[in-house]
Structure formats: structure tokens, C-alpha cells
Write a structure and sequence with these properties.
- The protein is mainly alpha-helical.
- It folds into two domains: 12-58, no CATH class; 65-284, MetI-like (MetI-like fold).
- The chain is 67% helix and 3% strand.
- It has 14 helices and two strands; from the N terminus they run H-H-H-E-E-H-H-H-H-H-H-H-H-H-H-H.
- It has helices at residues 12-38, 43-48, 60-68, 84-115, 119-133, 140-149, 156-162, 169-179, 183-191, 196-224, 228-232, 240-248, 258-278, 280-284, and strands spanning 71-75, 78-82.
- It has a two-stranded antiparallel sheet.
- Strand 1 and strand 2 (78-82) form a beta hairpin.
- It is globular and about 75 Å long.
């Protein structure tokens, strides 16, 4: 069937905004294309042709990057060499544990403040706002001493304990989502004999699962790209982001070549790109919470 396209008039500000977004999107896409093209060049080709397409497709650059993607780690008087597989496992564990613990505790605290309004809930809500506004600096030395005394330094236990929090914008997001849930559902469940725990897991959580999943995905991506915790808190558990940080600063022959470094960056970026393509609709804007259709 022949399609008929109808053009509608748009205002000048909207047209300017569309052009700006198109230019911005094209710029980002061009950077990815440049990175992929550069990762397939030889060193000589890169020095003489930094912008254009490669003369010969050097797929072996990815193999070299995987081979050179390794870090020496000194622990318990022994020297270990952690390669790509070990850093990949550390990245997966860290990127899953942090958002799961943080969002779970934040969700629970926001639900308690919503379910049991009162002076304590009001105090928790206000203290969250205050802690978000006040920057906390200078606490690193004392925190290192505390976690070292608890034998949590350089362990996954530190990641679990330090991730238990309710402070942050996610608390406000969950609290706002709870406010939008029809209270008739909770009242109907109470009439049927459901307790607070059953209502929380059987009614409230399914209605907020979409928002929880979106925040989990965005937090996973953020933690996948971070490397500072590995430098300070987990020196014997380097992630791919930390490995890429060291890989980019390396002066060793081979790993210091720009095409090899860019190939390593493309490898580290690939899991995040796949996750974004799979859940792009949820991340971009398909976040609707409601009780009834």
C-alpha cells in the first residue's frame, strides 16, 4: 500500500533544536566510527592517515590488545599477573553488586518513609536532602583506617558494606514513584488479609520494577566505567576500566601504539554498547508506572 507522508509545520525554535540534535548525534557517531577505523590501522598508517579509512584492515590489533591487556598485582608477598579474563570478571562483579545493594537499600528506605509517614520519615527525607547538598570531603584517610580495621579493605565485603546507603537522587525518585501508586490497591490487599511484607513484595515492588530496572542499568553502566575504587580500595581486583586506564598510560612497546590502545577501548566499550542497544527503549524514556491501564 502506498504510504502518504504528511509534513507538518514546525516552529523555527523547534527546527533549530532538531538541527542541533542532529549535529550533536552525528558528532558522537563520528567519534565511534573514527575509533573503530583507527583500531584497524597499522602504526604507520595511523601516523600518515589519522582521519581516513585504514589502508589494510588489521583485525590482529584486537588480538594484540587482548594479549597486552594485563596488569601485575602484588599481594601477600607474591606477584600476580591479571589478564583480560580476570579484569572482566572483576568488572562484572563490581558493576552488579554496587547497583543491586545501593538500589535495594534505597528502595527499601524510600518505601518505609512512604508506608509509615511520621516524624522519623520526615526527618529521614530532610536529612537526605541535606546530605545531597553538603559536600563531604576529607574523609578518605579515616575511611581507609576504619575499613582496614574491619578487615574489609581490598575485599568484596568492602563493596557490599560501602554500597549500603539511601542518600542520593534515587531516594527521591523512588519516593515520587510510590506517591503515584493508587492507594486503593494497598487498601484492597489489606482487606484480603495481606500484611505489610506481602504488600511490599507482591504489589508495590512489581509496580516499581520498571523504574528499578532502569536505574539498575544506568548505574551498571556508570560503575562499569569507573576505576577510582580499584585504585584506592581494591588494588588487587582491577577492573577493565582500571586496566584501560593503565593500558592507555603504558610505555611498553606494542601497548603504547595508538591503534592498539583504541582497539582495547573498543573491546571495553562493547559490553556497554550491547546493553544499551538491548535496553535502549527503557533507558531513553519508556518508564511509565501505573496501577491500571
Amino acid at each position: 500500500m502506498r504510504k502518504i507522508f504528511r509534513w507538518r509545520k514546525i516552529s523555527v525554535p523547534s527546527a533549530i533544536l532538531c538541527l542541533f540534535l542532529l549535529f550533536y548525534s552525528a558528532t558522537l557517531l563520528a567519534l565511534y566510527l573514527w575509533g573503530f577505523s583507527t583500531s584497524l590501522k597499522t602504526v604507520d598508517d595511523f601516523m600518515t592517515n589519522m582521519v581516513g579509512l585504514p589502508k589494510a584492515w588489521e583485525w590482529n590489533n584486537y588480538v594484540k590488545a587482548l594479549d597486552l591487556f594485563a596488569l601485575p598485582i602484588f599481594k601477600n608477598g607474591r606477584l600476580y599477573n591479571i589478564g583480560f579474563e580476570g579484569m572482566l570478571l572483576n568488572s562484572i562483579i563490581y558493576s552488579l553488586m554496587v547497583p543491586l545493594v545501593t538500589l535495594s537499600t534505597t528502595w527499601l528506605m524510600a518505601y518505609l518513609c512512604y508506608q509509615f509517614p511520621g516524624k522519623m520519615s520526615s526527618f529521614i527525607f530532610r536529612i537526605n536532602i541535606v546530605l545531597m547538598m553538603i559536600p563531604i570531603v576529607g574523609s578518605l584517610p579515616s575511611a581507609l583506617k576504619v575499613y582496614t580495621s574491619l578487615n574489609l579493605y581490598d575485599t568484596w565485603g568492602y563493596v557490599f558494606v560501602s554500597s549500603i546507603t539511601f542518600v542520593g537522587p534515587n531516594f527521591l525518585i523512588f519516593y515520587a514513584v510510590f506517591q503515584g501508586i493508587d492507594k486503593g490497591l494497598k487498601e484492597a490487599a489489606q482487606i484480603d488479609g495481606a500484611g505489610n511484607f506481602s504488600i511490599m513484595l507482591g504489589i508495590i515492588f512489581p509496580l516499581t520494577a520498571v523504574m528499578f530496572g532502569v536505574l539498575f542499568i544506568t548505574s551498571f553502566i556508570t560503575n562499569w566505567n569507573t576505576y577510582m575504587p580499584m585504585i584506592i580500595w581494591l588494588p588487587s581486583k582491577p577492573s577493565l576500566a582500571y586496566g584501560m586506564y593503565k593500558f592507555g598510560a603504558s610505555t611498553v612497546s606494542g601497548s603504547s601504539w595508538p591503534p592498539i590502545q583504541v582497539a582495547g577501548s573498543m573491546i571495553v566499550m562493547l559490553p556497554i554498547l550491547i546493553i544499551f542497544l538491548i535496553f535502549r527503549n527503557k533507558i531513553i524514556g519508556n518508564v511509565t508506572i501505573g496501577s491500571f491501564k
